[in-house]
Amino acid sequence: MTEIPIILLAAGQSSRMGGIDKLMQPINGIPLLARSARTASAVGPVIVALPPEPNPRYGALDDMDVQIVPVRDAAEGMNASLRAAIQKLPPDASAAMVLLADLPDLTQADLATILKARLTHPDYLIWRGTTEDGKPGHPVVFDRSLFGQLSQLQGDDGAQEIVRKHKDFVHLHPLPGRNALLDLDTPGDWKAWRKKHAP
């Protein structure tokens, strides 16, 4: 399989966590950010969008083979991260995967499944993971023909504008359970997730 670069969006402010950085919360002794980066690194080269330094998230990625992209205007929202990361894609990249860093249930197999869907359904421009019952989520793979549009996005809507614009060229592929959608945005989310995954 040709390696597709993976953009890991990790520059958000954890605004719903009451002053706690959700991406630095430990899971089995590893910050969620590092766990997500390891999962992504198992299937392709990883570009991580981070807030400007100083920030403890940089330390979570020490000794990991990832490319870090500081996002100066991270406070704008998700699209600032997308713009910054798109500029760092290799010129020969035929597609790129976009992935949120706060989805703890996504696995290496899930990411590989969506990358494979791109090869088995080549007549599309966007390949997207869904929950088991079909709700769209992550990861999302974009064909290189959309890179220009991704690099022009503004605000905090992510790439939804582009997905809507090309809705007839989006392939949805189910992943197990709620892996594609379950994020941990609040202390309550974390409490419920940890309770469910307690040994």
Automatic annotation (TrEMBL):
What keywords appear on the UniProt entry?
Magnesium, Transferase
Bilayer-crossing residues are none
What name is this protein filed under? Answer: NTP transferase domain-containing protein
**UniProt superkingdom:** Bacteria
* UniProt source species: Ruegeria atlantica
- MobA-like NTP transferase domain segment(s): 7-167
Q: Show the CDD domains listed in the entry.
A: GT_2_like_f (cd04182)
Statement: the UniProt record of this protein carries the keyword Transferase: yes
This entry's Gene Ontology molecular function terms read: transferase activity
